[in-house]
Fold each of these.
Amino acid sequence: MEPDRVLSDLRAYVDAELEKLFTADVPYKRLTDAMRYSLLAGGKRIRPILTLRFCQILGGDVSAAMPLALAVEMIHTYSLIHDDLPCMDNDALRRGKPTNHVVFGEGRATVAGDALQSAAFELALSAPVGPDRLVKAVAYLARAAGAAGMCGGQELDTAEDSDRSPEGLTLINDLKTGALLRAACVLGVLAAGGTDRQLAAAEDYGTHLARAFQIRDDILDITATEAALGKSVGSDAANEKPTFASILGVEAAERKVLEETEAAKAAVRETFPDPDFLLALADHLAVREK
Amino acid sequence: MEPDRVLSDLRAYVDAELEKLFTADVPYKRLTDAMRYSLLAGGKRIRPILTLRFCQILGGDVSAAMPLALAVEMIHTYSLIHDDLPCMDNDALRRGKPTNHVVFGEGRATVAGDALQSAAFELALSAPVGPDRLVKAVAYLARAAGAAGMCGGQELDTAEDSDRSPEGLTLINDLKTGALLRAACVLGVLAAGGTDRQLAAAEDYGTHLARAFQIRDDILDITATEAALGKSVGSDAANEKPTFASILGVEAAERKVLEETEAAKAAVRETFPDPDFLLALADHLAVREK
């Protein structure tokens, strides 16, 4: 199947499943409304698509991987809600819409993020995957979300005295963006019962894809318009936060995006059957304009 | 063994295990320091003690239940960090010490709470409990922590238009405090491989204990001194937040504490071998002064 078709099919499947979440009529409905608001604000769904696709090309049952895929997207969404809070990045605009706390208030946005994290683990643990592999998958996700992953990256990204040499920035990226993208890939392989070699290759793909993705993000923060991006631009410069794009220059950063993209592709080209979509996705993300 | 001895032994065991967490020398050490700060700020450890004790009286391996017990305490601790934030209850004092955000800043406190939640699930999933029961236990914890539990209770407790009749307040308590206390009890039974009847009884015990506990808290918010309590008092009245103690009066609220305490004791008296500690704990919490 054509990569574009894979992307649109899996994305439609993810969106349809997300749409079903948190619709119950409960006394705390304003909280679940806040959770739905950000979950359905229309991201690229790259993470859940990766989980599903890694499972799919290994011959696994995509519907069995879906709870894991949605869980990864929930972790990602909660992190965006909290990152946007006034005490963090203080962003009012995300994906072209007012951020969660602007609509629902800071307290509720904080709790909505918290509850999305809990919901991620609850849903993930409902996946019809053998319990041994399920425990391994969900533990991997929890580690990726926590201090040794996304939260640790957030700490380093926020701290004023962090090492912002290219190596330091790579560490920040590997934790803040890489850990969860890696988990998205690994969970798909685990859902399908892939080999250790495939697990390692999925990790490598996720690592390099995340580096390319983040550097592309940093470039767009300099070169894109708010209208094209659907979120505030120039925030790195406004926060005086060095990025690959600002310390190496946009051109060198573009080259680094391409290098990391090639490394991502190399990781999966020989290890997985039918890697075309994974290759095309890496290429697509390398040149994205938003 | 005497209930006092059970309490002090299990508490010492929990404190010793908590002390070992997040000690690694990592680049994001300020984040793990913030996590440790609140985790080691000296709570009563009632939740992990309940997990361990329910496991113990059923003949289970207490050390196997420890990761689950610590996970419950981590969820509790993260909720305190977030509850104390300026955008929530805005409390500067907790357990006699400055709250997390006062020491570490709001952004880091938010992330420390987030990372504690992730760490809870990662650690819980490492428990040497059969994978089927482990999945069930951790899913129960995730549900208790989320919108259908603690976070939903937080929403109702914070919303200005929530039902604050005795029934409404009971729902708020059952979610905000009850869900996690129930989970603490249930996880101990699951770790030991208890029967469905014992699971149900542990839930009942947790529910009634939590009601008694929360109403006692509300009473102390009116009657105690800040020095005795180690945290701000009068905050409910200052927030004009009705509680059992304020709508029924302290005396009627005290009667309700005793009723719920008796219900908690009744739930476990016949269902568990050696329930003495559980009975004594309920009695102890009913008359606690802090």
Note: Chain A has a mean pLDDT of 94.
Amino acid sequence: MAFRFEIIQTDNFSQGRVGRVETDHGSFATPAFLPVGTQGSVKSLTPEELMEIGVEAILGNTYHLYLRPGHEVIRKLGGLHHFIHWDRPILTDSGGFQIFSLGSLRKITEEGAAFQSHLDGSSHFLTPEKVMEIQIALGSDIAMVLDECVPYPSSYEYVNISMERTSRWAKRCLETKRENGPALFAIVQGGIYRDLRKKSAQTLVEMGFQGYAIGGLSVGEPKSSMQDVLEWTIPFLPISTPRYLMGIGTPEDILYAVMNGVDLFDCVLPTRNARNGTLFTSFGKISIKQAQYAEDGRPLDETCICYTCRNYSRAYLRHLYLSKEILSSRLNTIHNLYYYINLLIKIREAIKAGRFLEFYHSQTFQDGALRNSDTHLQSEGQ
Amino acid sequence: MAFRFEIIQTDNFSQGRVGRVETDHGSFATPAFLPVGTQGSVKSLTPEELMEIGVEAILGNTYHLYLRPGHEVIRKLGGLHHFIHWDRPILTDSGGFQIFSLGSLRKITEEGAAFQSHLDGSSHFLTPEKVMEIQIALGSDIAMVLDECVPYPSSYEYVNISMERTSRWAKRCLETKRENGPALFAIVQGGIYRDLRKKSAQTLVEMGFQGYAIGGLSVGEPKSSMQDVLEWTIPFLPISTPRYLMGIGTPEDILYAVMNGVDLFDCVLPTRNARNGTLFTSFGKISIKQAQYAEDGRPLDETCICYTCRNYSRAYLRHLYLSKEILSSRLNTIHNLYYYINLLIKIREAIKAGRFLEFYHSQTFQDGALRNSDTHLQSEGQ
């Protein structure tokens, strides 16, 4: 399958860059945020709604789709795109993070990962070769190598052993890669150890992948560790391939990572928050269930032009949330995803206009996290 | 508010008729099926989706909206149409049926109905005047009188007392009616007693309402009772006003009732069934969770052109249902409502074309209920 990454413009004052990823299912602009469609559905939305929001690519979870309905079923039915009625790019993860999340239900050996299904307790064994087979069956546009995601904290010794094994698994995935199959991205591991991150990156880059992800973050480490890992890793990744920060993150995280040269993001935050009634707005994060919105006839965010803000009041959104109406999840998800997609649009425009740092500094978020990390960044001489 | 009912065509061989109801929020064709938007949302769908399906009018539940978010809040925010972003006709029930459903939590007196909220146990007292005030505040197009819905079975003595009180309540509602308020429909009660149904109908018709509903059905009585009640009641209702069979029913029920001259229907069946994975198709009712659909790439109903059938396979619908995805409720609801709306379209076309009985006989449903009731109907000389 065709895969191409083109850098269109690089920021003069940071490592931010604007680019475009091309696949057989069309292209998408980077930096990009990919909503998560775990079980073959970006929760609560149709593909048409995703397109109206401006979503250009989504993520599917190999672990979940392998267990249910099964990759062979999806292959027989014409592949994941056809199955879920989404004809634009799909990136599939490898299941490494989900298997990690199973805790004591998994066992890692050199050969692969043994685990018990979270659905029915049945036993499974995934190898690097098997996850490639699954992702090929799904018809993914971008596949990820199988990796071991280690918990935080983990000892240097264990992270070292694990990272080396993840590199050997990456090699096995690469050897299984097919010309007419998905593009293949490797995953840098190494926990919060600088030299291990460097070694992981160097080893993988030497093998030659079509993109590189930074994995093993958002597993309980402090926020500053995420920032450290980005700074330790990215210098060892090629300029010319996409860099993907897996499972991250908040708007602040995304801004910070873009400044450091990251091109791809995925995260359940906007969609999960939406279902919990937590909404991103131009004036900060809000909880729609608060009593102050009970008779508030204004749109959620008066600066927003998403379907939700164009047609419904805060009072109605609060009512739907309190009434546990399905429409609550839908309207909130539309808004939060629009917020994220629009943030990425503004980021790309700022980079193109040569004013990304200005944009970065203009963004303020309710919890102040951005301003702190900001100071940190500056002290690192970016 | 304007309200007009026009009969466009009457069937030669049954009491079926095609008409049109006009309100300040536009008109709708009859016989009509109104989806239920209990809490200000037809569960899982947006107003745009309802319109795409062909829905022309919906029902709102006074009881639920009174309790949450409160009719005064809705009034302040511009009325129910604006609040829920639906600018077409809305019929509101009076809460009688919901209060009945509370069982021991309610107490009926001459003055009105005392009950405890199903939400928080708080005490409330609804009178005929109060339910009018609420429905006026909501800005409903068609309001219903407060009625007492008696359980099945109930003694002749109690049903008689209750029916007489319901008539007095109807009178009080009529006295509260405003020129610029909603149209007002009365509700015929009388349980399964022929003379009480007749008396109820005659008393209410004498008062002069803009429409008449047949209430107190679908409360546990046998199907034949519903059919009896229709036949006992409708001859005493005016030809020129709409007849509304509340809370009914299955496709078979609707066909039967249309044949007997009913114009309006509402029921949670298509929407609730959808969420439970039970789908109406041209080949009968099916349960989408069945294993036989696991690898079935065909649309749910190959003769259907709804959004769901145009874009998704049975296998995907089954997968979404088993995965408890919100999209499952959405796609199933779209299909089931489309089935109902389309059934009503076919009914109207059949009446207009002078072949309603032919159409009636051509309809077969999986459980055979229609064929049985059919026999019964014929023996009554229709």
Note: The first strand of chain A starts at residue 3 and ends at 10.
